[in-house]
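Treating backbone geometry as a discrete language has practical consequences that deserve illustration. Part of our work consisted of pairing the sequence of a single chain with a tokenised description of its backbone. We regard such an encoding as a compact summary of how the chain folds. The amino acid sequence and the backbone structure tokens for this protein are reproduced below.
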Amino acid sequence: MNQKAVFIGECMIELNGDISSLDLSTSNMQVNFGGDTYNSAVYFSRLANKNISTFFSTALGKDTFSQKMIQRFKTEKIECDFIRTDGKNPPGLYSIEINKNGERSFSYWRDKSPSKYIFKGENGKKLLEQIKGANIFYFSGISAAILDGAQKKQLIKIASTANICAFDFNFRSQLHSKKNHYRELFKEINKNIDIHFISFDDAKELFNINNPYDIFEILNKKNLVIIRYKDMIVYRNSSMEIKSIKVPHGKVVDMTAAGDSFNGSFLALMFNDNSLAIEEKLLKAHSVTSEVVKHKGAIIHESYMPNMNIQRR
């Protein structure tokens, strides 16, 4: 039986395009699907070897968008066994505006998204049992923020049952408006995880710090902490050694899935080959990100993926 990697969170309907002339005429917007943990699941699935299956866990409705979403997951070889489809509403929606530097701004319509109630009711209890004890379990600050207090606790508890638990900080000021609450929540989550992915810009905004090394004082458990900072990746391994490596930067068109693609790729590389040094895994994961940011949208066509000589399913 294959081992399983479970990515949990919200996949949304994505509107992406230039609306600068919308006040005068119609605008050509692209409609797609996206979400932080879903994006990571795609890149994990593309790079993971044949010994592990990728699952995405979320809650959807019975509408056409939900059905199309599930078909997209299957196209990416993502298993859908842990997806609820009994929601009363369609998935949430968000729009992305991108400036000339590739930087993004978001607007969200997600208040009634089924994923906000993923663990509610009898079907929620069944799902918790199904995703318990995964080989890899991955969630994010967004996965936690959309849930109420009781479901947050359930998410953290179920994550702690995994063999390897990974968490993406993914602070969003619109979603994590109660900063004191989320400072404590993220520190609590860190106690139960093995790999912590952080963008320094996110941590800087939440913890009011100016140096990436301050993060290691805040998150002081002996786990792998990986920080993306300017043209470097700063990390602390389980032996509490702090190191950094330079990473090359090229053309940037869209930073939408820069962190998501890195995280999913790193987890796949970590699972595939224990003989690779962590520095090599970080650089290989960054090579995926470097390609992703050259293109519009979160998910690049598979033909653009860097060749890593992986035996896929």
The mean pLDDT is 92. Residues 3-19+27-304 form a domain with the UDP-N-acetylmuramoyl-L-alanine:D-glutamate ligase fold (CATH 3.40.1190.20). The first strand starts at residue 3 and ends at 8.
